[in-house]
Hints:
The chain is α+β, with helices and mostly antiparallel strands. It has 2 domains: 9-54, Roll (2,3-Dihydroxybiphenyl 1,2-Dioxygenase, domain 1); 55-95, no CATH class. It has 2 helices and 4 strands. The chain has a 4-stranded mixed sheet, covered by helices on one side. The longest helix is centred in the middle third of the chain and has 20 residues, at 56-75.
Amino acid sequence: xxxxxxxxxxxxVPARDFALSKKxxxxxxxxxxxxxxxxxxxRHGNATFLLRAGxxxxxxxxxxxARGARLLQDAVPSxxxxxxxxxxxxxxxxxxxxxxxxxxx
Length: 105
């Protein structure tokens, strides 16, 4: 693949409340270049991203990370942080940092 040229990569940003999230980013100054009922292309200068309705994929990723962490607890000891039944390795879904509005399903 040495002759492959990347033009750009787009980030997908999940949204629990798609309409509210589109309005939020537009209020921040992003232009809504294109939108369907579950996907929106937003841009501000050279910054662009795709807003996607739903958090199902994000939930699935974190569930997979948690399963992997449980497997690691049994397979890889972690010196100094050992607790009963495992190594202390865990994966949790990050909380809202306060920079984005909380939305409800």
